[in-house]
Amino acid sequence: MRSDPAEYELITPGTLEGALDLLRREPGNWLPVAGGTEIMVQYSTGRLDARRLLNIWDIPELKQITENGEALRIGGGCTFGQLREHPAVQSHFPLLAVAAAWTEASPIRIALRSPGIS
């Protein structure tokens, strides 16, 4: 049985403050989603229990990798590609960079490296 899109609500707050405010006001009611690969299988089979989805994909603060000399901070919205390619991750956590390369979906890697695809 497939899911009915009309049964779902998707909100895109656009800012970290907006997302946190919504989660604070309605705790337990929203499922944060960045990308959605994991939930699409559940959705397509009609088994996605969460009906209210919070799109955090385009929140810049969650996609950053920063280094301050003492720590490396990896945002929750970073992709495996970012982890694989970031110089600080490669330098300080080479196994994480390798694991990210193994975990990143190969069709995505192939598409990103193909001519004409950005």
Order of adjacent strands in the largest pleated sheet:
1-3-2
Please indicate the percent range of residues in DSSP E strands (runs of 2 or more).
5-15%
Uncertain ranges: none
Helical fraction equals 40-55%
Under the CATH scheme, the architecture of the largest domain is: 2-Layer Sandwich
- Average pLDDT confidence is 86
**Annotation field: number of helices:** 6
Task: Give the assembly state of these chains.
Answer: single chain
Instruction: Count up the domains.
Output: 2
- State the distance separating the first and last CA atoms: 35 Å
- The level 1 CATH classification of the largest domain is Alpha Beta
- Looking at the structure, the CATH topology of the largest domain is Uridine Diphospho-n-acetylenolpyruvylglucosamine Reductase, domain 2
Bulk shape:
flat
Instruction: Sketch the topology as an H/E string, one letter per element.
Output: EHEHEEEHHHH
Summarize the biggest pleated sheet: 3 strands, parallel
Gyration radius, in Å: 17 Å
What's the count of strands?
5
